Amino acid sequence: MASRSDRLWIDRASMPEDYEFVINGLIAGVIASLACGLGALPLLIPQLKVKDRIHLGYGFAGGLMFAASVYNLLLPAIDQGTSGAMQLWPVSNDLFGLLLGCVFIWMVERYVTPKRLKNSMLLKPFGSRMETLVFVAMFFHSIPEGVAVGVGYGAETHGVEFSGLGFSIALAIAIHNIPEGLAVDLPMRAGGASVWKCFWFAVLTSLPQPLAAVPASMLVWLFEPLMLPLLGFAAGAMMFLVIDELIPEALETGNHTAITWCFMFGFSLMLLVQIVL
After folding, report:
1. Which of 207, 237, 270 is nearest to 106 (CA)?
2. Fewer CB in a 10 Å sphere around the end CB: N or C, the chain?
């Protein structure tokens, strides 16, 4: 019979294997988070002159964020079920989350005043009001993505039919994080931030991905029902921000037709990313 110390050693030795899916989810979340920082790479091109063309940048970023909200966050609810009755519940959950996301950003807008930005040590590093609002919206957008990665890896332990699901989800999120990172970086660069700072702040907006992936992978049964309202919340936050802040700000200083084209280019790019993945 094995001694108590032997049994403890055996238990500890088997833990990495037992929880390998948790470690994989954490690593995948970190990689997806770093991929968001790659959105800063186009800012290294001097010819872009981001500061002089920020109105076009807002239009482009708005298109990216709006397409991500629709195709990556809202449509999964509509895709669930085959009959209208089955679809009503998931869509209702998604829409409930969407309205909560709108209310959340609306309240953040009211809180983030120029005076608070100037006096708050917490908000000051983000820069202008627009930069702060984009950061907040994208930060909360990353939470359901991290949960999705964790649920994917956790599901792999429940059946062979889910084999490779976690990796597929993580890869898709990492790729579409790149243009989302650009959406975060454009207003920061226009505000005078260095490309290096833009990179790390974009990564920071995706920090919830590895943090949310770990508990989600361990508690699939708890987090899976929360996916739809979380997806809706993120979509509502981003869509409200685009309509209420980004586009009006762009139209104040730029050519309306050029901004519209930039919005459509951003929307089309994100749509292509979703289709390819």
Report:
1. 237
2. N
